Automatic annotation (TrEMBL):
Source species, domain of life: Bacteria
InterPro entries in UniProt: Cell_wall_metabolism_enzyme (IPR050570), Dup_hybrid_motif (IPR011055), M23ase_b-sheet_dom (IPR016047)
Cofactor(s), by name: Zn(2+)
Transmembrane parts of this sequence: none
GO biological process: proteolysis
Molecular function per GO: metal ion binding; metalloendopeptidase activity
One Pfam family cited in the UniProt record for this chain: Peptidase_M23
Protein name: M23ase beta-sheet core domain-containing protein
Species of origin: Sphingomonas sanxanigenens DSM 19645 = NX02
Length: 400
């Protein structure tokens, strides 16, 4: 008779507490890879900044010193941007782990609630009732036996909950540290932007004496831009213009007037243009995530001639290699673009810049700040060409 009165809700509550399963850990491999890549870019940019700052300290020429200081400040800004990206990735990982922990705790909450309700019901039954109600004494014995067998499971579960609470505390601390690193990164970016603005003012003051030559180059670049049908044609015209300029520079100097007519020597043969230098030391111009590779097809069916990077809003863009600016400005359907002549037929196109710091006629050192990316979903494109043909940048980039 007693078995008919066994409080089955107690049994099910205890069994439910014992069989609640923990959900598997989330797959955060992509986020962890992104954080590792951001840390790698930060380390590379920090090393570049240290090297450029040492060069600036040793420079005696004021112009070269300012250029090296600007490149060092740009590298420090890129390192800070990479640190912000790493902090964002860590915050995303912690948020995912916290969400999964909340799901685990919610899954365990229901059986624990049932167990608590059952124990409260048992506690409200007077002990004397066990001797009056038929079967209640046997029920009590069975429940005590069941409690004794499941007590280790309950203890294990309570230990697991304590571990979850400790893990939640660690996750909150990790989130706080990542948020603090993110704020520090933004503060460093702002500080380096102020440094770059100061150095840009010094550069403009120094460049006023060279304004006439720069205006001639700017006028020629604007004329080429107006004549070109599209961006590819603009690159071709600028490359042709550079080839003509190099040939003119290779011509011998004019001969002095002879003392006697007819005594002038025969002109020497026109010297061939100097041998093209090897490939330039190259680096990526921006910190970001690669979204389009060389040869990839766009949604419109156009094949990419370079690399496109998704960056944080206002990301610092630098010169990927030393060179001479031959075009700088907005061009038709693009935001601001910059074309750098590295010599020897090597040219770089940087497209979709929101602001430009470099101007036509500027001679740039590798890593010199040239502009900034736009806001929102910023996308910066870089194309490298040699003698008019697209070149894969990846093999040239070694160590960032």
């Amino acid at each position: 008779m007693g078995r008919r009165h066994v409080p089955l809700f107690v049994v099910f509550a205890l069994l439910g507490c014992g069989f609640a399963l923990a959900a598997p850990n989330p797959d955060l491999a992509d986020e962890r890879r992104a954080v590792a890549e951001a840390k790698r870019q930060s380390a590379l940019a920090t090393a570049r900044a240290r090297s450029l700052q040492q060069r600036a300290t040793g420079e005696r020429d004021a112009a070269a010193k300012t250029d090296a200081e600007a490149a060092a400040a740009a590298a420090r800004a890129q390192a800070a941007e990479a640190d912000v990206a790493a902090a964002d990735g860590r915050i995303a990982i912690v948020a995912a782990l916290q969400a999964r922990q909340r799901a685990r705790l919610a899954a365990r909450e229901a059986p624990i609630a049932r167990l608590t309700a059952a124990l409260q019901t048992m506690a409200r039954r007077p002990p004397a009732l066990a001797f009056v109600q038929p079967g209640s004494a046997a029920d009590l014995v069975h429940v005590r036996m069941l409690l004794g067998s499941l007590l280790p499971v309950v203890r294990a579960r309570s230990g697991g909950l304590r571990a979850e609470v400790a893990a939640g505390r660690r996750l909150r601390l990790a989130a706080d540290r990542a948020a603090a690193d993110r704020r520090a990164g933004h503060a460093r970016i702002a500080a380096e932007q102020r440094t770059l603005a100061r150095l840009a003012d010094e550069h403009r003051l120094r460049a006023r004496t060279l304004a006439s030559g720069a205006m001639l180059e700017q006028d020629r670049a604007m004329a080429l831009g107006e004549e070109a049908r599209d961006l590819v044609d603009l690159m071709r015209r600028i490359e042709d213009d550079g080839l003509v300029r190099r040939r003119l520079e290779a011509l011998p100097a004019p001969l002095p007037r002879p003392a006697q007519p007819g005594a002038a020597p025969l002109p020497a043969a026109v010297a061939a243009p100097p041998a093209a230098p090897g490939r330039p030391a190259y680096r990526l111009p921006v910190v970001g995530r690669l979204v389009t590779g060389l040869g990839d097809l766009s949604a419109g069916g156009v094949r990419s001639r370079g690399l496109s990077f998704a960056t944080r809003p206002g990301a610092q863009v630098v010169a990927p290699a030393a060179g001479h600016v031959v075009y700088a400005g907005r061009y038709r359907g693009f935001d601001a673009i910059l074309i750098i002549d590295h010599g020897g037929g090597w040219m770089t196109l940087l497209a979709n810049l929101a602001t430009l710091r470099a101007a036509v006629g500027d001679d740039l050192v590798a890593g010199a700040p040239v502009g900034r990316a736009g806001g929102g979903q910023a996308l910066v494109t870089v194309e490298l060409r040699r003698d008019g043909e697209p070149v894969d940048i990846a093999p040239l980039v070694s160590g960032g």
